[in-house]
Amino acid sequence: MGDHPLPELQGKTPLQAARTPNMDRIAACRIGLLKSIPPGMEPGSDTANLSLLGYDPKVYHCRRGPFEAASMGVNVAPDEVAFRMNLVSLNWKGKEDILMVSHSAGDLSEEEAGPLVEEVKSHLGDSGLTFYQGVGYRHLLIWKNGPVENETLPPHDYLGQNMSPYLSGSPGNPVTALITRSWAFLKAHPVNAARRAKGLPEANSIWPWGQDKAPDMPRFSERFHLSGGVISAVDLIRGIGVYAGFEPIHVEGATGYLDTNYRGKAEKALQALERFDFMFVHVEAPDEAGHHGDYREKIQAIESFDEKAMGTLLEGMNRFEDYRILVASDHLTPVSLRTHSAEPTPFAWAAKTDLQKTGGGSGFSEPAARASGLLYEEGHRMIVDFFGP
Fold first, then answer.
1. SS3 214
2. Same domain, 120 and 228
């Protein structure tokens, strides 16, 4: 959700340009910045969301593969390595010019992805390689005695770039060898033929990345003495929740895209709070818009989130005698960069009694967060203060 100022918006960020009355109410109570990405670490959603949940990434970080496996109920054995596996769109302009067109194969649907993953299983699956379908373009590869230390590249970081140096630069790399084996049968698949006919990006390559072995994390309830649940369309986020001991809660129509079921997520969270002390609700749409480089889409995602999710939550939370609510951008995904960046990211929180007072402040935005003077240099410490005494 966080971003940089854009000339198209007269120097405002998408968050500043969006209409966000519900987040503005929270920000009128307390707003600031936190460093969700420790110095020297990659600005990924895995690192950032561990920080938000109070887990020091320098201690508990692992790459996203095992978290995504946990979300899907897949146990990663000690001799196995879990990879996130995207279905991506490549464009061959020549043997030495292979462009990464889309990290999401043009926002591939689950209905289209299912037959493609089955095709991957039939051509590449064996006793050492097991493939699982996830959500949209996001899938899972479990590789027995797999190459945990080999270089892999997050495809969203290389949009529009030539991938040939990576794909051909290390002939002995089993990961890139696996990628190239997928090209012929995916290109020929009827799903891609149908996408070609419609002028849509094809899901013409697998792309394994983010590999690691299973982490060792304490339960959230052990650290904070609170029970919890997690709502997200993204396997990574649900998987972090599983390792934290949260119950993953399914929401019909939660897609991870602009069309996700914002209101349904809020309604399910309110229901879950009848049983749990804490709910972690994640919305991916602003991040996807940032990767697309589309500021209009990002503003739309932010406004939909504020109206349908935050509005529903603030109204529904009144049923509880007391509560605290926090809104945060896990990391920045600037439209101008089309990938994540490591700058401090804005957050705001309020208690029920705070929200019953008159409003004020300058809204929920990156400049307002900077102007507050509140900065958590170690982002994982923020949640401790949020829970309070």
1. coil
2. no
User: Residue 123, SS3?
Assistant: helix
Q: What is the DSSP secondary structure assignment for residue 156, as one 8-state letter? A: G
Contact 238, 174 (CB under 8 A): no
Residues 120 and 230 in one domain: no
Query: Tens of pLDDT along 35-93?
Result: 999 999 989 999 999 999 999 999 998 998 999 999 899 999 999 999 999 999 999 98
* Cα gap 276→278, rounded to integer Å: 6
- The CA angle 88-49-15, to the nearest 5 degrees, is 80
DSSP 18: S
Q: Domain count for the chain, please give it.
A: 2
Say what the alpha-carbon torsion angle 372, 378, 381, 386 is, to the nearest 10 degrees. Answer: 20
How far, in Å, CA of 70 to CA of 200, rounded? Answer: 32
Q: pLDDT for 97-109, tens place per residue?
A: 999 999 999 999 9
Q: Which of 342, 365, 381 is nearest to 24 (CA)?
A: 365
62 to each of 58, 256, 317, 353, how far by Cα in Å? Answer: 9, 22, 34, 38
- CA torsion sign for 311, 315, 320, 322 is positive
308 and 373, same domain (yes or no): yes
CA distance 360 to 346: 18
Q: Report d(CA 46, CA 84) in Å as an integer.
A: 12
Q: CA 13 from chain center: how many Å?
A: 20
